[in-house]
Specification:
By secondary structure, the chain is mainly alpha-helical. The protein is built from 6 helices and 4 strands, in the order H-H-E-H-E-E-H-E-H-H.
Length: about 210
């Protein structure tokens, strides 16, 4: 290959690696009201799965908690019901050792109420609108994955179009997984999707 051709090839590679080109227009995010509506819908489905046809209780939020501490706070709330034969473990789970359906019923109700009283802040849950999910899909398929492949990572790219409601994270299909230090290089060369939170698998180890 001649010098001019090599230079052209390098320029083309750098264009992909740095995601050159006009910045794409970002889609609209969900409003706070829409996020709360989605959460309410999920809670209603959860309640009906346990108690079909029974009206769901109205539960006021006592405190928004971060997701790392939610398990302990909810366990403490369930423990406060003082249900017989319910054993609590250090990993913030519990198990019922009896066989009384009434206690199982009460335990499920208490867990439901506690989960709604002590829930993560809706603004921090990372809900994406349908438009954001669609943007995310095509950004990953057309920009991110080809760039990761040029960096030498094995990632199988999608060949289909977006399916409404689908969420695809190609980082979980990368091989080998970058180390913590390598992630910084990856992000500079191949910027992640600018929409929503960025979830990564466990690092490949190393500094």
């Amino acid at each position: 290959m001649s010098v001019p051709l090599r230079a052209a090839a390098l320029a083309a590679s750098l264009a992909l690696l740095t995601a050159c080109g006009p910045a794409p227009e970002l889609p609209a995010a969900l409003t706070d009201a829409q996020v709360k509506a989605r959460i309410a819908e999920g809670n209603a489905q959860w309640w009906q799965s346990m108690f079909p046809g029974e009206p769901m209780p109205e539960v006021e939020v006592v405190q928004y908690v971060d997701q790392d501490s939610a398990a302990k706070v909810i366990q403490d709330c369930v423990r406060a019901a003082h249900l017989d034969d319910v054993v609590f473990s250090p990993d913030f789970s519990w198990i019922y050792l009896g066989d009384d359906p009434a206690v199982v019923d009460q335990l499920n109700r208490q867990y439901f109420v506690c989960s709604l009283e002590y829930q993560p802040d809706p603004a921090e849950l990372g809900y994406l609108s349908d438009a954001q999910l669609e943007f995310d899909f095509y950004y990953n398929r057309d920009r991110l994955v080809p760039c990761l492949q040029l960096l030498g990572y094995s990632v199988i790219n999608r060949t289909t179009d977006y399916v409404p409601g689908d969420y695809w994270n190609p980082y979980y299909e990368m091989y080998p997984l970058p180390t913590a230090a390598e992630w910084a290089r990856v992000d500079v060369r191949c910027p992640p999707d600018p929409v929503g939170p960025v979830y990564r698998p466990t690092s490949g180890g190393g500094p």
